[in-house]
Specification:
Elements lengths: L3 E7 L11 E10 L5 E6 L4 E7 L3 E10 L9 E6 L26
Antiparallel strand pairs: 1-4, 2-3, 2-5, 5-6
Length: 107
């Protein structure tokens, strides 16, 4: 079981009415209830990546910021616990062959 993880958070596209008006986004992440880490990102950034450990509790928030500096009234919020739930790869194709065996005469 892995203990170290790379977490990738993908951001949703802007709503049509926000295109051109929303220029940046504020992303907050808190790990295990610690003070949140804040990043202000260009709206063109589709995702962020960061390191986490097995069983870390993540609280994630994403706000839109418009050209006047206004924050969206409420964020997109996700709470997740980092865990290794990825199964191993499917085994490769099995190989089955047939060989004819001569009949053995009865004794």
């Amino acid at each position: 079981m892995a203990n170290n993880f790379k977490v990738t958070v993908g951001f949703p596209p802007l709503d049509a009415e926000d295109v051109g008006e929303v220029l940046t986004r504020k992303f907050l992440r808190s790990v295990n209830g610690a003070a949140p880490i804040e990043e202000v990102l260009p709206v063109s950034q589709a995702q962020v990546e960061f390191a986490a450990l097995q069983s870390d509790a993540l609280h994630l928030e994403l706000f839109n910021i418009d050209d006047a500096g206004n924050l969206s009234t409420s964020p997109s919020v996700r709470d997740v616990v980092v865990s290794d739930t990825t199964p191993p790869h499917i085994p490769g194709e099995m190989n089955v062959t047939y060989a004819e065996v001569p009949d053995v005469p009865a004794a």
